[in-house]
Structure formats: structure tokens, C-alpha cells
Write the C-alpha cells for this entry.
Amino acid sequence: MLALRRWTSHRCATFFNWQNAGAVAQVLLTHIILQLRLYAMYGSTRKMLFFFLSLTASEVIVMGVMGVLGLQDPKRVLTNEPSKVIFICANGEPQNGHRWVAYFYTVVISVEGGLLWLALRKAWMYRPAAGGFTLMQKLTRDSAVYFFIIFSVYLANLIIWVQNRIILNELGVPFAFALSSIFANRLLIGCNCRCPFYDRGIRG
């Protein structure tokens, strides 16, 4: 029984290591896409470029440090035993220990919150009551809506992981990564197709 538990724990650790690496890569790519959208919305200035490069570098460093510390944590929860001799991979966090996944989503939410604020600020500047280009109003409004949806999905995951029920922890993870990827790609397509209109709206 002990040998089976150790074998299962080793396999689960390998699986979750790859899953976590993929999650970090996906989040970073999503944030880069969102930053490209905002970079276009704010006129592609050097100031915004420096800000986004610094933000991405800081996020990579923080997530890298947390990843290394989390992998070395002896209290990692990797398996669940719903009944005797049945072991399944289950990602959880110790009740009396570091909550690495919750920390991860806290970092994600912090970055997402800043990006959402920038999107809402630009949408407010081009609100219908303020006048201006109708196309810019639509583009900034759509961007704010997409940013808000992505922020909400990650926030829901943070709440689930703070509750830390091992049978529910992974419930929202697939939705978070799937929806954020879909909306980020829609923003990227819109950014590639409409950047000239952003420049016109900003300079006009």
C-alpha cells in the first residue's frame, strides 16, 4: 500500500509539474496579448512600452520564484484517496502551510486588475457622452468588456483556491485557461486589424 501511494504521488507530481508550467506559460502569453492591445490603445508610446516590459519582467520573476519554492515544498498535496486502495491525482494545498496556487492567482489578479483599469480608463475617455470617433468608442468598449471577463474568470479561480476543497480546486481551471485564451486571441485579432484606427482616434 505504501509503495502504491509513493508511486501514485510521484506520477501525480510529474503531471502537476507539467500542468503548472503550462499554466504559467499560458498566463504570461495572455498578459502579453492584453498588453499589446493596451499598447495600441495608448498610442504605442515608449512610456507604455517600458511599463509593459517592466510589468512582464516582474511577473516572470515572481512566478519563477514561487514556482521553485512551491515545487520544493514538502507539504504539497498531490493525491486524494476517496476510498481504500484508490488513489487519484488531486491538486490541493495544505491547511497549515503555504498556499502557492492561491499566491499564483493573487499575482495574476493583481496584473489583470491593473490592465483592466487601463482598459476602463480608455473606454471612459471615449464614452459616447464625451464624443469622438464612433469606432473608437466601440473598440475601447469591447476591450474593456473582454478584459473584465478575463479578470472575472481568474478571480473566480482565486476564490475557489482560497476555499481549498480538494475535490473542487481544479473545477474552474480548465474554464479559466480556455476562456482567457479565446478572449485574448479575439483581442489580438482585433489589434492586428484595427491598429490604424487606434492611432487615428488618439491623434485625431
